[in-house]
Design brief:
The chain is mostly beta strands and about 375 residues long. It contains 5 helices and 23 strands. The protein has a 7-stranded mixed beta barrel with strand order 12-18-16-17-14-13-19. A 6-stranded antiparallel sheet has the order 7-6-9-4-1-11, with no helix packed on it. Strands 2-3-10-5-8 form a 5-stranded antiparallel sheet, covered by helices on one side. It is globular and about 65 Å long.
Length: about 375
């Protein structure tokens, strides 16, 4: 621990500590849990110099505010919940510097395609006490995080020591930033009980549009739409093991996609499982999102997963020295200081050395550029 903390001013509807999950205990009935969007968590950790398995704060929907008690670097990944530092907007998928006393807020989704869950990744990671090898919060079992519960006002979340230097304004390349969208297509590997659904039911499943229900949570993404009936109504099976992304079809014929807080076994027939590369899209699907399914093979899913892991292993973040990525519509993005106050602004690229013309709220200033402050 560094002594620095992230103080909870408001947790919003639900904010929890999450890492990549609690593995190796399912035979005892202990769920894996972990971040609902593991891709966003992994990239966020890498951005701020952490091991990609490190813990972050998962914020759902918004309405959350936190205060840094020490200087640090952070990055927001996942959903666009309109993040702001001291009421000034901050970019997603990019490292941002914070000073002691700075307040970070995640207000609400920026639009219908913004996603559902954002991750606050802080240099050094979240340093709560591990339980069974993980800091992830599983609310049902009251394990991990802060006393096994969702964050509350006044909680002081300890931060770990920074192990790797972090450069300011480092960003995830555009081609690695996911597009969540109000309509998603999820690739599915059939089985293991797809044989209890006849061709007509299977055609309904793959050729229909489903809608994410407002009854969804971290345990499962429930879908409204046409029924997918099992042969002779045989939706119930002898309970067997389930995986994250398994698609159960209970007696009402409406699919449920199991997510991070899923149970370890289930007694409903599983028509298929979401390919791991598309799990983030499902985890970020807000109520009302349209979901369609496309069938792929195990081999295709494996290749997609290997390509994703290779992209994470070889990721090269981009920063102010990379012109092709910094230019935004003929302008540059900088941290600037105006009359002693720091701003994140877009500036005209006509500066020499360390001075530039910055436009803030329609007013032009001759300012000193202070990268990373």
């Amino acid at each position: 621990m560094t002594g620095a903390t992230l103080r909870v001013i408001s947790p919003g509807p639900i904010s929890t500590v999450q890492d990549l999950g609690r593995h190796g205990y399912q035979r005892f009935g202990v769920s894996v849990s972990g971040a609902a969007d593991r891709y966003a968590l992994r990239l966020g950790n890498l951005l701020v110099g952490n091991d990609q398995r490190g813990a972050a704060i998962e914020v759902t929907i918004g309405g959350a505010e936190f205060e840094f008690t020490g200087a640090t670097t952070f990055a927001i990944t996942g959903a666009d919940l309109s993040p702001a530092l001291n009421r000034l907007p901050v970019p997603l998928w990019e490292t941002v510097s914070a000073a002691a006393g700075d307040r970070l807020s995640l207000v609400s989704p920026a639009g219908p395609d913004a996603g559902l869950r954002a991750y606050i990744n802080v240099s050094g990671g979240i340093d709560t006490v591990p339980v069974l090898g993980s800091r992830s919060t599983h609310l049902g079992a009251q394990l991990g995080g802060v006393n096994g519960r969702a964050l509350e006002i006044g909680d002081e979340i300890p931060l770990g020591p920074l192990t790797n230097p972090v450069l300011p304004a480092q960003r995830v390349p555009r081609d690695l930033v996911p597009q969540y969208g109000g309509e998603i297509v999820a690739r599915v590997v059939p089985g293991p009980q797809d044989d209890v659904f006849d061709p007509d039911a299977t055609a309904v499943f793959y050729n229909s549009a489903f809608t994410v229900s407002d009854k969804s949570d971290r345990m499962g993404c429930r879908l409204d739409g046409p029924e997918v009936p099992a042969i002779d109504g045989a939706h119930d099976i002898v309970s067997d093991g389930v995986v994250t992304g398994a698609i159960q079809v209970p007696g009402d014929g409406r699919p449920i996609i199991l997510l991070a807080d899923r149970q370890t076994t289930g007694g409903y027939a599983k028509i298929g499982a979401i390919a791991s590369v598309d799990l983030a899209l499902v985890a970020q699907a807000a109520p009302g999102t349209t979901v369609r399914f496309v069938q792929i093979s195990v081999e295709e899913a494996g290749k997609l997963a290997r390509n994703r892991m290779a992209a994470l292993r070889d990721v090269a973040f981009v920063g102010p020295s990379t012109e092709s990525d910094v230019m935004r519509g003929g302008r540059w993005r900088y941290d600037v200081r105006i009359d002693g106050t720091d701003y994140r602004v877009d500036v005209d690229p006509d500066a020499l050395y360390d001075r530039t013309i910055a436009r803030v709220n329609g007013v032009e200033y001759d300012v000193e550029v202070v990268p990373g402050e």
